[in-house]
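Table S2 (continued). Query chain:
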Amino acid sequence: MDRQKMALVLSVITILLVSSISVIFFLGMTDDGTINFYVFGDSQGYQGGVEQIVTTANLHRPDFIFHCGDLTPFGQENQYQAIKTVLDQSIVPVYATIGNHDLKDGGGALYEEYFGSSTYSFDRGPAHFTVFNTSSGDITSQEFSWLEQDLTKTEAEFRFVFTHIPPFDPRTGENHSLINLTSSTQLMSLFEEHEVDVVFTGHIHMYNETTINGVRYVITGGAGASLYADEDSGGIYHYMNVTLNEDGLTLETVLLDTPSLPRDSVVVRGPVEDVTISLDDLLLMNIVTGYSSFQNQYDNWRGHGTYTGIAISELIELVGGMGINDTLVVRSFDGYSQEFSYSNVYPNATWSEIQGPMILAFAYNGTSVLDWADGMRLAMISPDGGYSNTDANQTSESGAVISAGARWVRFVSLIEVISG
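Corresponding output:
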């Protein structure tokens, strides 16, 4: 049977309901006994990497492709529609599990609507594939019981497990793994007991492979979200090409193009997570509009006009908010940045009268990005319509601001909360 016919066979599956949270799929074998599949995670609304993977899959016809979660920035229906549209272009089967970002704002129900259960298993020749849900940051007792039963009853020679959040963080001094250490320990013991070959996860935006007590743990969180490590430490955009045949098991790391994010999107990053937000996403949020302007370092007034955007405070709440001792860094595509305090983001009555709300503006005098040459831009919607150099120094913890205009960062690409 040729590969195209096999792809059609694989798309016809028998589904056996085994519990309220799980299903099992039975898939056929290729003529030569080879199993080949791609694994990736954390596209988080950036579709370029997923498009590359789907294009490659349509050319080389792996048996399936698997997304390890965080398909969306924060679980909105338009975001699910966008990733579903791309994945629907695949002519090979697509599987996934839910990530913590997909769960945001009630996104769990939408995930099920678009992708079905996030807990299931399937067999493929001599291999068993188990998928379970860690999107909450932990694993429920029901989920663990199902996982234990699934691994116990399989007699497959090879066993692969997929979930979103890894049981440990391989980076020194970081802890972006499951929040419950007991759960992590129990899971790793379970994988060892049942001789799982590979556990695939995402969540940490990097590539890492670590073998512990015979189990290979592969983090493949490089499908598009901003990276959590430098290149030498695994900070690469990539997917995994996995092949199982008579020669054994091969895991190949395949590089993806570095995302070229347009000026109509911005990354909002907290201490433990981040989201990439597009203009379409911003338009669904609470829009702030106001007239303002700023003084430059020569005391000249610039930027008179009406700004439309989203309060910075609302944006950073998407990644856990900001503590009183934390620092907010707003960075431009060209590397320019400014730092702000908690009081800038959540101004008290006195600072509100001087500064007004601090917003990420996506439109100026009715012109939106990309047509607005300066957008996206940080703006202070001062109540008196002008944010002066004196105002800027009065609303700075350091009191040493060069100019108000310097605070109005243009071409914003990153808004990041740094723990104090």
